[in-house]
Amino acid sequence: MANKKIAILTGGGDAPGLNAVIYAIVRACRPKYDLIGYRFGYRGLYNNDFVPLTRDTTRGILHRGGTMLFSSNKDNLFDYTIEENGVKVKKDVSDVAIANMEKEGVGTLVVLGGDGTLTSARDFARKGFNVIGVPKTIDNDLASTEATFGFDTAVNIVTENLGRLHTTAESHHRIMIAEVMGRSSGWIALYSGIAGSADVILIPEIPYTLEKVVEKIKSRQSTGKNFTVIVVTEGAAEKGGQAVVGRIVEDSPDAIRFGGIAAKLANDIEKHVDNEVRHCTFGHIQRGGETSPADRLLSARYGVKAADMIEKGQFGNMVCLRNGKMDFESLEVVLGSSATGSTAMGLSKRVSLDHELVQVARSLGISLGD
Questions:
Q1: What is the mean pLDDT of residues 219-246?
Q2: By C-alpha distance, which of 343, 336, 303 is closest to 134?
Q3: Are 249 and 255 in contact (CB under 8 A)?
Q4: Which of 14, 109, 130, 309 could be a cystine partner for 315, CB 3.0 to 4.6 Å?
Q5: Rounded to an integer, what distance in angstroms lies between the CA atom of residue 17 and that of residue 136?
Q6: pLDDT tens-digit profile of 341-354?
Q7: Short-list 50, 8, 60, CA closest to 29
Q8: What is residue 365's DSSP assignment?
Q9: What is the DSSP letter of 355?
């Protein structure tokens, strides 16, 4: 490894803390190793599109959201769309990527990403390439690690904006509904809902009934509180129903995209109350802006641990937080050992009905819609 380069790429959706991880890896590895970063995830690896990563090129990125290397969630090099004779076909072009890295003298690939991105990382490891994975998701829903960077920032952003909804809800005696990210896990809604003094929190793990939501609204009205703030995870669903799908996108690992539950809920509630009901989707503002101090620290820990694993030759593994300390787990264990891979990051970490914060919410008088 002494004369080999380290390459880094970021794949999938962006998350606050990606730049901080890159920043930490560069500083922990230099000057012993040269580093490059492939742009636009695996697409850059296929096209050999990279930039040098030095102290100078990564200066000032620790606090910034997004990723200086850009990202893509549509480029699985083991099933990549190329054009042959004017026809688009799917092919395994992973050998092209390996040849590109070997040409540049890259000996280790550090992959920052979610389920699809790390599934490919595992598959490169299976082909004998030295790979280190770093998990990334603002949803905090990975069973293999206690915390993911980006989650704290998202919770902070949602909590701050719930405070803004409160003031207008109270001023106009409105029902305000905020739809937040999380897909099939309710961590963002639960944390921010409690911190932001929401009156109702609806998460995918606890199917709600409209009756219970309306009951909470009317209960507040009976005590002179003529407004209600509701937080709902994009993947939440009414009991006996299904999650609302906003779009179905071709050629994407997330072909089914959640979205629209807040609008549906607003329409349903309006039929049972006299108040005006408004809804909003926080969407990608949860990912943007500056990274929170807690996420900067966590990201730095992930990056330094990745560098330590490179030095010790602990390849084929993913960095994880376990019992409050940085550790690692085999990508095979994290993602499953099937030949075709997994799209669920092994076991997902979902909110359990007996989780402490579920009990806290109930004790505070917050309705969970059940």
A1: 95
A2: 303
A3: yes
A4: 130
A5: 9
A6: 334 445 689 999 99
A7: 8
A8: T
A9: -
Element containing residue 340 per DSSP (H, E): none
The per-residue DSSP string of 111-128 comes to EEE-HHHHHHHHHHHHTT
Give the H/E segment covering residue 366: none
Instruction: Single out the residue of 128, 192, 148, 199 nearest to residue 16, CA to CA.
Output: 148
Q: Check if the beta carbon of residue 73 is closer than 8 Å to that of residue 103.
A: no
User: How far apart (Å, rounded) are the C-alpha atoms in residues 190 and 258?
Assistant: 18
Which distant-in-sequence residues (6+ apart) come within 8 Å of 312 by Cβ? Answer: none
Burial letters 336-346, b for 16+ CB under 10 A, else e = beeeebbeebb
Total length of the chain: 370
Candidates 14, 34, 115, 139; catalytic one: 139
Distance CA 5, CA 113 (A): 20
Contact 148, 137 (CB under 8 A): yes
> How deeply is 350 buried, as exposed, middle or buried, from its count of CB atoms within 10 A (0-12, 13-18, 19+)?
middle
pTM greater than the 0.90 cutoff: yes
ω into 293 cis (within 30 of 0): no
Catalytic (active site) residue 79: no
pLDDT digits (tens, 9 = 90+) for 18-41: 999 999 999 999 999 999 999 999
C-alpha 366: how far from chain center: 26
Give the H or E element holding residue 343.
none
93 within 8 A of 77, measured Cβ to Cβ: yes
